[in-house]
Design brief:
257 residues
Length: 257
Amino acid sequence: MIVWVAIITTAAISITAAYFSIYGLALIFAGAFIPVIIMGGVLEAGKMVLTSITYRYWDMMRMSARLYSIIAILSLMAITSGGVYGFLSAAYQTTQLPLLQVDKKLELLLIEQSTKQDRLDRMDAIIDGINADYITKRMEERTQQASERKKLTARLNDIDVQVIELNASKFEIEAHIGPIVYISEVFDIPSSNAANYLILLLVLVFDPLAVMLTIHINMILQISKKALNVGTEQPTNDVNGVNGGTTRQELLNGLRS
């Protein structure tokens, strides 16, 4: 039962990692989308086959073949991990981009708001600078400013409305990436860094786990095969009458341990 569970789990992880990797590589090399998918699929299959062959026939392989196999497997793992990173980072950017756009709009609006408010303050300072006894002159200055002051006030009111709407939109977007925002606040780091660390953690676990499970499945299958072969043979005794064979139960006990 455990053998089938391990095989199904390994297949699921390997296929998922392959999908993320191939799609991520295709996004990186978008100019050759279909060829990259074909190349990535073939390399993923080759990696798993090479891992199984290297484990099963390690003792029969030359040193040069062992060295190449290890380098090839590690290189393919690095390529797969790079593809997974590309896929996950692209997915994060798809969610993060609207938030960056909202932040940029808010920044520009606040700059404009500050500029126009400064202009209003300067206009008020001009009027305040006129002696209070010169009422007519103060009124004339205010009349001259009336048109510009009206435009500035209207624009400031419009900016206030836009800022409120953008903040509401920002809160809605942040709700989709809430965990990342929470992690960034806990560790006092930018949300992009928090997302990057989480993606790297997933990358370090994903494909290496698939490779290790492939090795373990081959180990389990070899032990199971030996146990079945021993079960069909009678143990032989040596000249001293001591049992010289390995019993099926002993191999099964080794499998369980």
